[in-house]
Structures are given as C-alpha cells and as structure tokens.
Amino acid sequence: MIEPVPDGTRVHRPASFVVATLLAALLIALLATPMANAQGVRSLGMGGTSTPASNGSGNPAFGALPDAGTPFFLPLPLGAVNVLLRPELDPRSDQFDLLSAFDQASHLGTLLLNPARSPDEVIVSVANDNGVPAVAIDFVGGSPLQISHGTPVGYGQAFELPIGFDVGPVGLGIRPYIDADGRLTPLAGFGELFNEGTSSGEIAGRLQGEAGVGVNVTYATALPIPASEAFAGQVFLGVRAEPFIGLARIDGTGTFTVTTTENDDGETEFGYDYEGDGFYALVGQGGLGYGVTGDLGVAVTLPTPDGRLTAGLGVTDLGIGLWQGMEVTVAGDSLGASSQTGPTPSSRTYLFDRFGVNANVAYEFDTAVLGVPDLGSLLVAADGAYDDGAISGHLGVEGGYDFEIVQLLLRAGGGFDDGLTAGVGAGVRVVGIGFDVAVHTYRSPFTAHQAVGAAVGLGFGF
Amino acid sequence: MIFRRSLVLTAVTLLLLAGCSRHTLLTVEADVLSFLSDEERAGEFSLAADEYLLPDEEGLTAEQLGVPAQMLEGLEGLTLDFSAAITSNAATGSEEVAASFHISDSSDASPFDSPAIASTSVSLEPGETEQLTFAVEVSDSVNPDALATLKSGDFRLGVRLEYVAGPSASGVDYRLDDVTISITVRPGNLLPF
C-alpha cells in the first residue's frame, strides 16, 4: 500500500530511480543526438555552414550529385555527459538551473563550456508614478535575457533520427522526429516593464510541438542536358515525399496582460488577464495525425578552370497534415474569473505549416591549380535559408591536407542563425574511419548569451 | 496599499519566462512613499506621544502583502529603508523624535504592542532640521526570530514615528523622504522536483 506523503515532505527517491532516470536520459540523448546535431560536427566546425554533401535533408537534388555517397556519421552525445560534470544541469543539485539545462538539452551533441545562466536575482520594483501605479523589473546577474529588451523571443528545435538507404536511383528512409518551437512576442507596453516601468503590458505567445514517424522516398536525377560551350555543367532535380503518422501534437496560442490600477479606496491593485486556445492530440488518447510532406530541389554543378561550383535551391515541407485531437480555450483574470471550453473533439488541418526555402553554393578549388604543397582539397561554402519565419546564413571554408594514408581537414566559418554563430574544427580520415572535432559558438535560447562548446563525432565509410 | 496576490503570481510567471534556478532570488521592492498623498507624507506633532503609524494601527499582514504562504516559506529576508526630515518648531528647549519598526504575530491586535526590531531617535535644538534615518534588515543572521515570524505567514508589521519629548507649546514638522520595503524570496523551492 502506498502511504500518502504528508504536505511539505520532500520525497527522497531511491538511488536506483535516479540511475534509471539518468540512463533513460542518456539513451534519449544518444538517439536524439544525431539530429539535434543534424548538420554534423563538420558543419559546426564551419560555423554552421551546410555543404552540398551535408544538405541531404534540405535539398533532395543533392542526392544525385556524382560524389554524394554519404558516410555514416555518429555525433557523440557529449551534452548528456555534461550532466555529470556540471551541478547546474543536475535536477537534484541545489545549483540546478533550468535555463542552463534547457540550453544544454537543446544542444545534446555539444559539451557546453558556458551554458546560459538564470538571473541571480529578479527585482520587481513597485511605485506610484504621478498617480499611475507602475511596475518595473530588473534582472541582476545571469545571462542577458532577450525578453528584457522587449523583443520577440523564439525557440525552435528539431530532433530526428533519419535512417535511409538507396535502392537503385531511389532513396528510402524512415524518420522518427520531434519538432518543437515557440515564440513570445511582447505587445503594447511590455518592453517598458524592463525599462522605466509600466502600468500595463501585454505579451502574446505561441507554442507548437509535434512528434511522429515519417516514411520517405527520395528520387533525384541528372537532367539529360547535352554539354555545350555555353553550359558545360549538369543540372539535377530531386523530390522527396514523406507520408507520416503523427503521434502527438500540441499547438497553443495565448496572450497575457498585466495591469496596475488604483481602486476606489486609493489602493493599488495588480491584475492580469489571459486568454488562450490550444489543440492537443496524443495517440492512445483518441488523437492521431497523418499527412504527407514533400521537398523539392534543384542543383547545378559547373566546372570552371580553377575548380567546380555547386549550387542548389531547395523548398521544404510542402505538406498537409490532418490531426484529430482536442480543442481547449481558456480565459481568466486576477479577479477570479475563469472560463474554459472543452476539451472537445476537434480536427485541424495544417497546410505548409513549416514551409522553408534553402539555398547553397559551394566552390571546390582544383588544388593542382593552386599549387599549395600537401593541400588535397579546398572548399568554400555558403548557405542561406528561410524556415518558419526565421532567416539564417553561413559562410565556411574547409581545407584538406594529405599525408600518406591520413587526411587532415581544417575548418572555420561563421554566420547568423537566431544569433551569431562561429566555429573552428578539424577532422582526420584514416582507412575509412573519420574523427571530427569542433569548437563552436551560438546564441543560447531566450538570451543574448553566446555559448561555447565542443562537439565530437565519429564517421564510417569514407 | 494592497499588494494583490496577482503581483506575486505575475512575478513568478515572469521568473518562469526568464528561466528559473534554485539560486535565483526574487525581490519585490515597493516605494511605499509614492503611494501616499502629500498630506500623508508630512505632518506636525505638537503633543508628547503624538505618533504617526504606517500603514495604520493594525499594521500590514501577509494577506495584504499578497505573498502566498508557499512563497513565504522560501523567504530569505526583508529590508526597510526609512528616512524623514524633522524640523523643530520650538522657541526654546530641545525636542526628541523617534522612529521604530515592529513585527509581531497576528494574534496581537497591533504590531506596535511588540517591542521594536529597530529604532532610532533624533534630538533637535530650536529651529533645527535633522534627518531621522534607519535601515532594518531581517534575515537568517540579523533578527532571525522576526524572520521566523514572517516565514510563518502569520504576522503584522508597521513603522511608528513618535514625538517623544519636548517643551510644551512647541512641536515639530515631519516630512517622510523615503520608505522603501523589499522582501526577498527564493522561489526555487517552487520547482516541482
């Protein structure tokens, strides 16, 4: 029989529970890491730049490039190991920091050296400003929070475990995935809360998450364009179709308004009201989603006297999703009023809801022309993308040196991806086995903090 | 002045938006003076034992402060900064004015029935203006008994400004310059694990 726990008593969990939890976290991390790090350690070393070889998921046309044979990469889940090294990531520690943990969890493949930190102190100052009650908030210490600048705060993360193989000219794959993104948008007056203070402020938020499994079919081919003096290159087209079964989805929007007012007795009252609507679906509880998404891509390779240019344009997530789930709306205020409708069975249709466009260009130099001793390869790459309302762009370079049976690769790059990114990296290739390491920086979620971390990956099949 | 419970809930929400950690402190700092009218900020004492009580005879309770009991359990401390300018109206003889800060449990009808946690006084010569200033800290190391009372959520607190002594047919003018109260809690104990 389970004894009720008296109020105020902390439950001491047995050590075996803690170990099991850690093991489960490590397992999830192992599974999720390859995609948390989709761009791979190579890309991180180039500051996040994706190359035609690494851009398999963004542009299906790259699958038809002559040297597209992709080795198998396994980024190591160093981020999970960090839980054992840093008390602020350990939920059992007195120093546990939710923001640090969130930062690390969002970058499982990277051992963060300086995860974002929550403020040491939040000071809420209350005063009456010429007859108008006002509140101001200051954050002391910790990482600078975006919200305190009154600017929208966004978060997006995709975890996937794509497994694929080629059957003749067609690629087949299965892709379990979890996508999560959210955005908080300060509205009227909210930004003042963190400056001179305000008597009212409003903020709107949106949270979306989806988990499911997709089965994809990719076909890419070279167009039969005869070589001519005007155009000596090749053009490739690719298409990917992915029917999916959705196992869970959450989709909510809401606004939250804070006001300070003076009542009839001259007393200051702080109040809030909120309204929101949400949709959720969970398999096993009457919810299910299904649909199909598609990606289209075109790529061009063009030989030049000094090397080869590769460029590509991809359009992703041209899809439709149909979901059965539950609809809920809530509203309420600080005076105690609250209302809720639902949960009522409902269905939602999502059309192109994660639509994105990406462009890549890469130039491989003919090292024989360059005449640098031992330089076996030199690649300069750039990318740009629009995805779910956010734009990103990167520029990176990779040089390869050949020493007998060993190939040494050195990388560097940087760009913008919800904040500045930069990285340096190195790789070694020996007898079909590759080892890559990168030190990179990016902007931590919700903050203006530049996190620095190290990622390591193993590769096979070179 | 009433701090509604929603203030704290709002602060907690913001804290969650900000990210939360067990080391993060939440301080609510109120400029009490800004909520008082000009008449309430200044006045005159003419008789011995004349006094001005802030906020009033019954003091401020946890309910009026609007801090939920669970948050009070995580109370780290309270500070009060008080400053008032006192001007003597006497033609002859010195006068004395005192200020004190009181915390009692709510079984007392008034916090002012309990001994002061901190007090200070000033003596004025005829026509002189002096600043009466004090700062109180209630924490684990300073006034730990008062901290325990506050943590229990069962308390009354208040500030008294009192005309202690002076020659008859004289008096003082007082003008409050600063009354700032701040309470600091560690909301990390609200984390559900």
Explain the overall architecture.
The complex is a heterodimer of chains A (462) and B (193). Chain A has 462 residues and is mainly beta. Chain A is built from five helices and 21 strands. Chain A is globular, with a radius of gyration of 26 Å. Chain B has 193 residues and is of the alpha+beta class. In chain B, the strands form two sheets. In chain B, strands 1, 2, 5, 8 and 10 form a five-stranded antiparallel beta sheet that branches. Chain B is elongated and about 60 Å long. Chain B starts with a helix and ends in an 8-residue tail after the last strand. The A-B interface holds A 88, 91, 93-100, 102, 116-129, 133, 135, 137, 139, 142, 145, 147, 184, 256, 258, 266-272, 334, 446 and B 1-7, 9-11, 13-15, 17-31, 34-35, 37, 184, 188, 191, 193. Strand 3 of chain A pairs parallel with strand 1 (25-31) of chain B.
Key terms:
heterodimer, A: 462 residues, mainly beta, 19-stranded antiparallel beta sheet, two-stranded antiparallel sheet, 5 helices, 10% helix, 56% strand, globular, disordered N terminus, B: 193 residues, alpha+beta, 5-stranded antiparallel beta sheet, 44% strand
Question: Topology, please?
Answer:
The complex is a heterodimer of chains A (462) and B (193).
Chain A: H1 15-36, H2 40-45, E1 72-75, H3 78-85, H4 98-105, E2 110-112, E3 121-129, E4 132-140, E5 153-160, E6 163-167, E7 170-186, E8 200-222, E9 234-262, E10 268-282, E11 288-304, E12 307-316, E13 320-333, E14 338-351, E15 356-365, H5 367-370, E16 375-387, E17 390-403, E18 406-417, E19 420-430, E20 433-443, E21 450-460
Antiparallel strand pairs in A: 1-21, 2-21, 3-4, 5-7, 6-7, 7-8, 8-9, 9-10, 9-11, 10-13, 11-12, 11-13, 12-15, 13-14, 15-16, 16-17, 17-18, 18-19, 19-20, 20-21
Chain B: H1 5-18, E1 25-31, H2 38-41, E2 42-45, E3 51-54, E4 60-61, H3 62-65, H4 69-73, E5 75-88, E6 95-105, E7 118-124, E8 129-139, H5 144-151, E9 155-165, E10 172-185
Antiparallel strand pairs in B: 1-10, 2-10, 3-9, 4-9, 5-8, 5-10, 6-7, 6-9
